[in-house]
Amino acid sequence: MILNRYLFKEIAFSFFATLSVLSLIIIGNTFVRLLASANSGDLPVDLLSQMLMFGSLRNLIRLIPVALLIGMMLAFSRLYRDSEMVALRASGVAPSHFYRAIFSFVAPLTLLMAVMVFYASPLLEGHSQTLKKEMHERPEAAGIPAGEFITSGSKARNYTILAEAIDPSRTIMERFFIRAKDGANEVLIWARSAILFIDSANGERFLQIRDGYRYENDPEQGGMSVIRFGEHGIRIPLRSFSRDDDIETVPTLALINAADPKATAELQWRISIVLSAPILALLAFPLSYTAPRQGRYSKIAIAILIYGFYANVLATLRGMLEREALSPWIGMWWVHLVLIALALGLLRKYYGKPA
């Protein structure tokens, strides 16, 4: 019991330290990316904290397996460096004793991961998609940067927009210009200000233009009409939000009952994330074996390479399942079996055949 508590404490400390460092890196990178989007006007400032929270929580779930692998490698490497592992083995402590302590920590962690992956992750992805939809529907996220020409449409029907300045709320565009072409008809509008808003009835985007001039050519007469107006409205669909790839928001029970290839791939992917924690824990112990006078961190680089290969193969197989290029019966299961076989092979190599 004393040995189990000691190993449990070492593994837990190294795991949480590693997870904290990786989380800070991921959160920092996410924050910088979102901050750049907010600064350019693509992301409303009031949604920044929510997008950061949901993005960080989703990434945290995926960081747990690699943090567990690296944390266990660090913990056992320290035991080898301080000759504690040599003393334990000389005292007759078998690998089964180590695994008892390892899985007393990994088992509840795996159960927690299962809840997070199967239940919490789809909810987080759904909230994130809702925020993205709101972000794209907001006038301040309409994609009109200050001082830049924006052109969209086909050769026959297109428009060009310029807003010389945008107020701090990113809703009022000052010294606004728009050129709209529909076949032979061409309209030029210049105004002192314009407000982009969304019609709550049909969800369409409209420009409310104030204090300006409308120039419209007359193909029949060959001239141009000029109209001065105090207020003018024009429909202008700038952006649309698509949720074609929202399989990650589907609840796990719905994936089980679905026969769609994408649903099968997503279900196997979620199961693989959960299985990766105990499998990597099984591998970490024999992989951390360090010979005398061997560097403490010599095996950690190998462990990271193995995890990178493991994760990339799973991601590749997920894409193949979605494209129906791989049978679901083969799926991702064989990758886990290969890693288990590698762990058992290293265990037998370094610690001998179990008695």
Description:
The protein is an alpha+beta fold. It has 2 domains: about 1-135 and about 245-350, no CATH class; about 145-235, no CATH class. Helices cover about 55% and strands about 20% of the residues. It contains 8 helices and 6 strands. The chain has helices spanning about 1-40, 50-80, 85-90, 95-135, 250-255, 260-285, 300-320, 335-350; strands at about 150-155, 155-165, 170-180, 185-200, 205-215, 225-235. A 6-stranded antiparallel sheet has the order 1-2-3-4-5-6, with no helix packed on it. Helix 2 runs parallel beside helix 6 and helix 6 packs parallel to helix 8 (about 335-350). The radius of gyration is 29 Å and the shape is elongated. The model has no long low-confidence stretch (mean pLDDT about 80).
Summarize the structure.
The chain is α+β, with helices and mostly antiparallel strands and 355 residues long. The protein has helices spanning 2-40, 48-81, 84-90, 95-137, 252-257, 261-287, 300-322, 333-351; strands at residues 150-153, 157-166, 172-182, 185-198, 205-217, 224-235. It has eight helices and six strands; from the N terminus they run H-H-H-H-E-E-E-E-E-E-H-H-H-H.
Question: Total domains, how many?
Answer: 2
Strand content: 15-25%
End-to-end separation: 22 Å
Elements, N to C (H/E): HHHHEEEEEEHHHH
Helix content: 55-70%
